[in-house]
Amino acid sequence: MSSEKETRKQIIDKRLFEAGWNVDDHSQVLCEFEIVVEPINEFEKPNSVYHGLRFSDYVLLAKDGKPLAVVEAKKSSVDAEIGREQAKQYCYQIQKSKGGELPFCFYTNGHDIYFWEIEHSPPRKVYGFPTRDDLERYAYLRRARRPLTGELINTRIAGRDFQIQAIRSVLEAVEKKKRKFLLVMATGTGKTRTCIALVETLMRAGWAERVLFLVDRISLREQALDAFKEFIPNEPSWPHSGETEIAKDRRVYVSTYPTMLNIIRDEKNPLSPHFFDLVVVDESHRSIYNTYQEILDYFSTMVLGLTATPTNVIDHNTFKLFECEDGVPTFAYSYEEAVNHIPPYLCSFQVMKIKTKFQNEGINKRTISLEDQKQLILDGKEIEEINYEGTELEKTVTNLGTNTLIVKQFMDECIKDPNGVIPGKSIFFCVNIKHARAIESIFNTLYPEYKGELAKVIVSEDPRVHGKGGLLDQFKKQDMPRIGISVDMLDTGIDIRELVNLVFAKPVYSYTKFWQMIGRGTRLLDSERTIPWCLQKDQFLVLDCWDNFEYFKLNPKGKELKNQIPIPVKLFGLRVDKLEKAMELGEASIVSNEIEKLKKQIESLPENSIVIKDAKSDLVRTKDPNFWNSFSGSAGKESIRILREVIKPLFRTVSNVDFKAMRFERDVLEVSIAKLEDDAEKFETLKMGVIETISDLPLSVNTVAMEEELIRKAQTNAYWANISEREFDNLVIKLSPLLKFIEAGGEERAFAKFDLRDVVVEKEYVEFGPQHESVSITRYKELVEEKIKELTSSNPILQKLQSGNVLSESEVHSLAEDLHEEHPNITVDLLRRVYQNRKAKLVQFLKHILGIERLSSFPEIVTQSFERFIQEHSYLTARQMQFLDLLKHFILERETLTKKDLIQAPFTQIHPDGIRGIFTPKEIDEILILTDKVLAA
Q1: pLDDT of residue 772
Q2: Among positive and negative, which fits the CA dihedral 28, 32, 34, 38?
Q3: Predicted confidence band at 749 (pLDDT cuts at 50, 70, 90)?
Q4: Is pLDDT of 745 > 50?
Q5: What pLDDT, on a 0 to 100 scale, did the predictor assign at position 332?
Q6: Residue 310 CA to its chain's centroid (Å)
């Protein structure tokens, strides 16, 4: 626009109005606000009536009439940054002349808006003006917030040492004015609890009032809501049961990505981009940002990412999104650290590899038994034609015998419940829903005594799964079902501490997903809550039926997935390709037809998307008739370039469409391009793909049957021999809306089904994972405990001890001789090494073994003492906690410590002066008391 005045009237006034500011209401907005910057000297004659005055374009007022914010406007054709210094000076001058608080600072050219909280944080681009309530909330938070350095952390919510360190790392980053943070924490280490404790601290310290927690599935939304209600019950949350409309009077909001995307695009009930003070992104990984980046761009706030993906496989773009160096998140805590902690924070696991003959060698004449071959001949099957690779199982072929064998092996090898009869809680990871239903049917056939309750298919498509009392709720909270048969739904995010068996009945190629699936079993039991079907959990079992562990040994990062181009982007791009080819061939009618389709596709872009709003100036060009009339010569090439490089990427914002119909349209478009290019081979290949899709349409559905004539005709070669552009369009118009019926009632593609006898050819435990305990130490403990329990039935001294009576020195001596006689290796020195207690006496070991009194190991005493110290000093900085962690490991490794050690390596790696560089004298004295206490244990 040619002037600032026009920009203000046509763009900025409207954008202020969208945020609830009426520029004509002087109780809300003052335009051309007069600012006295230079008082007139009584002896000096002013140059003009405006001498010593400045005029702010807009001043936004609080309800009490005081200035809340300054908005400096520039014309749309110039960079908004030009107004930055001017807006800043106006803010200071208003404060100087009017008193009160420093106004918030905005500067804009209509399209780009920048928000600057002067003296607190750098300017940042925002996607709309704040409402009056937003600005008053900002002003309140600015007055209320306290320094986070000394703010205590609620250890009742998250009290483990690493959780406190994670929270402290984020709080310190907040104080350094950072706005994006990434926590990498292994599944089961309490990411959600840590996040809730962080939220509680920020709210209590006056840094946040409203928080948004984003998840990718409804079941995870319910889980997160329950966690917030449990740990901060007094903070009102959204949504309540049955709520669909966004409520604006809550403090904690939990939403799925699609729901929030629809909310921010809703014109009828708009949500301010300044509504939240913190956005938490659960399971932060690349696929989410490809689709829902718009949500994070829309909200002008701090963003916290949570992920269980190991640091070494998080991609570059995720670190970049959270403004972290590659490989260096805000805080990380790995599965290995959690399992090796004393006592462990997570459960270790054993892996049993099971492979069948058909999986290894395929299904063919050579591998099918003679008995089964005879039966196949009787069934009219040609043995020579049966030839499937093992990798085709559950993709193009299924064999009841193989699945039955896997179920039987599971029932033989699984960890059972306390009665030792049926499996503890278990998950079967299946290839697809058909495979899952087949596994469920096998359980019901083999074990009818459980009346169909032992194993249940739990998939997101089933409406019976969700909500209280649904299948997932039953699996989590009730005795039955014991086995959840899953296709993707139980792979990630579901927290069930009692899971003791995981069955990989499918191959997995994503390293991230694989470890998320393993993470379903890593949680330890809650010591304060006893569940009858799982009283003890020392480790869990993974039955790997598809060599997944072997695959990840050879391919540590799994299969590298290429970025997929969204279907709407691909469709638009193909249409531009066709337009360009038609121009080249001089096909005027095709050019005209494709232009109309491109216009229609551009009109379908979601206008309320911030991506589309940002690109408004580019889209305005496509509304000019001259843009479309210029498709010839160099002008045409430039128009094609704009469509391909500028407009095409915008179609990533398209979400609420029938993607099956769009895929069909894409496939037909590809065939039409091959015909236009006169590429017979490509045309034939692509045509067969379209015919195969059309053949899947279920004529048993009335709506589909209405197009039966076209469906049958489109499957003939004659139809395609001379197909016209109009017929291509007709196919798309009439058949693409019917694609949605294929899955619901479609005729299945050829899927071979057999019931052939299969056999196990490989069955072994696999060494994999962070913890493999020494067999000799384990066996020694078992031997000692078995021997002592055996002797208790006949040895009067042991019986006396078991009854709670004190033994005399002579009785202890006599008992030691008896034990040595029974087994020469039962000595106090060996017991001290095996039970890792340096000072315990024989009687203490015996009481521990007999269950009279628990004996803590030296590592347990050290670890628990340090954890209590950190909980009691939750104000410690991340660096101080890092020092304490180093000190703990130093004591565990050397079992000794001098004061001199604390000012030498390795402690000088954290600060050149060692302990003196990071702790006060009082804190050092407390640490020395702590170390003396643990070393005396």
Answers
A1: 35
A2: positive
A3: very low
A4: no
A5: 93
A6: 12
pLDDT tens digits along 483-542: 999 998 888 778 889 999 999 999 988 888 888 899 899 998 887 788 888 888 888 999
Sole residue written with tokens 């403004």: 323
Rounded distance, CA 460 to CA 443, Å?
Answer: 21
The stretches of 414-467 forming alpha helices (DSSP H) are 433-446
Cis peptide bond prior to 737, omega within 30° of 0 = no
pLDDT computed for residue 244 by the predictor: 84
**Type and span of the H or E element at 576:** helix 567-585
**482 φ, ψ (degrees, to nearest 5):** -85, -25
In tens, the pLDDT along 689-724 reads: 899 899 888 888 899 999 999 999 999 988 998 899
Residues in Cβ contact with 167 at an 8 Å cutoff, skipping those fewer than 6 apart: 153, 158, 194, 197, 198, 201
User: What are the tokens at 15?
Assistant: 């954008």
How far is residue 675 from each of residues 448, 480, 662, 671, 682, measured CA to CA in Å? 58, 58, 20, 6, 9
The Cα–Cα gap between 481 and 534 comes to 14
Which residue, 505, 522, 450, is CA-closest to 480? Answer: 450
**Per-residue pLDDT band at 289 (split at 50, 70, 90):** low
pLDDT digit string, tens, across residues 305-344 = 999 888 887 877 788 888 888 888 999 999 889 988 888 8
Please say if the pLDDT value at position 747 is more than 70.
no
Q: Where would I find the beta strands (DSSP E) of 495-651?
A: 499-504, 539-544
Does residue 469 come out as left (phi exceeding 0), alpha (psi in the -120 to 50 range) or beta?
left
pLDDT (0 to 100) of residue 777: 60
Distance, in Å, from the CA atom of 64 to the CA atom of 67, rounded to the nearest integer, reads 9
Task: Give residue for tokens 């089964």.
Answer: 372
Rounded to a whole number of angstroms, the CA Rg of the chain reads 35
Find the farthest-apart pair of alpha carbons in the chain and give their distance in angstroms, rounded. 120
> Which strands, in side-by-side order, build the sheet including 113-116?
29-36, 53-61, 67-73, 104-108, 113-116, 124-126
Does residue 417 carry a pLDDT above 80? yes
Alpha carbon distance 820, 824 (integer Å): 5
Please give the sequence-ordered ranges of beta strands (E in DSSP) within 654-796, or none if there are none. Answer: 752-754, 760-766
Q: Pairing relation of β-strands 760-766 and 348-356?
A: antiparallel
CA distance 132 to 91: 17
Residue 158: both structure tokens together: 């998250």
**Nearest CA among 757, 750, 758 for reference residue 395:** 750
Q: Which range has the top average pLDDT, 52-66, 224-238, 861-875?
A: 224-238
Indicate if the pLDDT at residue 425 is higher than 70.
Answer: yes
Is the CB of residue 12 less than 8 Å from the CB of residue 72?
Answer: no
- pLDDT at position 830 is 75
Q: What value, to the nearest 5°, has the Cα angle with vertex 341 and ends 340 and 343? A: 115
Q: How many CB atoms lie within 10 A of CB 10?
A: 12
Structure tokens at 455: 């194993």
Alpha-carbon gap, residue 909 to 580, rounded angstroms: 63
- Distance separating alpha carbons of residues 606 and 619, to the nearest angstrom: 12
Q: Per DSSP, what are the bridge partners of residue 254?
A: 213
Provide the angle, in degrees to the nearest 10, between the axes of the packed helices 842-849 and 775-792.
Answer: 90
d(CA 601, CA 603): 5
Query: What is the spatial distance between Cα 315 and Cα 882, in angstroms, rounded to a whole number?
Result: 26
Cα(251)–Cα(261) distance, integer angstroms: 19
Given a contact cutoff of 8 angstroms between Cβ atoms, the answer to whether 224 and 192 are in contact is: yes
Beta strands in 37-111 (DSSP E): 53-61, 67-73, 104-108
pLDDT at residue 43, as a whole number: 54
- Specify the 3-state DSSP secondary structure of 901: helix
Residue 478 in tokens: 């009730």
Closest among 516, 39, 615 to 284, alpha carbons compared: 516
Identify residue 741 by its one-letter amino acid code. F
Residue 253: phi and psi, rounded to 5, are -120, 130
188's CB contacts (< 8 A; 6+ apart) are: 338, 345, 346, 347, 495, 519, 522, 523, 524
